[in-house]
Amino acid sequence: MGERIGVFGGTFDPIHHGHLIAAAELRHALRVDRVLFVPASRPPHKQSAVQASDQDRLAMLRLAIARDEGFQMSMIEYERAGLSYTVDTLAALRDEYPGALLFLFLGEDALRDLPTWHRPEGILSLARLGIATRPRSHLDLDVLYRALPGTRGRIELVPTPSIGISATDLRARVADGRPIRYQTPDAVIDYIRQHGIYRR
């Protein structure tokens, strides 16, 4: 039986404990051998939102996952020119890890938006979906099944602790001089301070 690999994409600007908790919960529940964090080089939906440089985002991600052998970083979107479409990333990972079962890790909001993504049917042909759901969430999958029939039978819902941390809020906190301790790993906090990221 092939390796089970979780694929967790994002801008990670900055990575925080919400990302790490979701990745750990999904890895455990879906019996994934390792999680590939895939930082987006040019995310189609967030081209104006990225605040830190590519170099800094990658450095913070490396620091955040360094102590977990089950977490790795994939540079696959940086090695490819143009916009970062998930379907292209999954196709490249399928070539890189032949025989592996891929799980695309998403949150509830991303799952709802999936029908609007570039070639969503292609995504479903390449990976199963591991969805981090909020406590007491009532996710209406029937709406998704009608919009994207291929999702039926390819979704795994995993209840995940919701701790209310967002990268947007972390950036604002740093800009305002408010604390971010306990919301992202200490090594990331030290890096942000040392390099003056997100300050006004």
Structure description:
The protein is an alpha/beta fold and 200 residues long. Helix content is 38%, strand content 17%. It contains eight helices and six strands, in the order βαβαβαβααβαβαα. Strand 2 (34-39), helix 2 and strand 3 (71-73) form a beta-alpha-beta unit. The longest helix is centred in the N-terminal third of the chain and has 13 residues, at 17-29. The relative contact order is 0.19. The mean pLDDT is 93.
Question: H/E order of the elements?
Answer: EHEHEHEHHEHEHH
Helix/strand-derived class?
Answer: alpha/beta
Shape: globular
Number of helices: 8
Count the strands? 6
Strand ordering within the main sheet: 3-2-1-4-5-6
Mean pLDDT: 93
The biggest beta sheet reads:
6 strands, parallel
Descriptive labels:
200 residues; 6 strands; 38% helix; 8 helices; alpha/beta; six-stranded parallel β-sheet
Element layout with pairings:
Blueprint lengths: L3 E7 L6 H13 L4 E6 L14 H12 L5 E3 L12 H11 L4 E7 H6 L6 H7 L1 E6 L7 H7 L7 E5 L7 H10 L9 H10 L5
Parallel strand pairs: 1-2, 1-4, 2-3, 4-5, 5-6
Describe the structure concisely.
By secondary structure, the chain is α/β, with parallel strands linked by helices. It is built from eight helices and six strands.
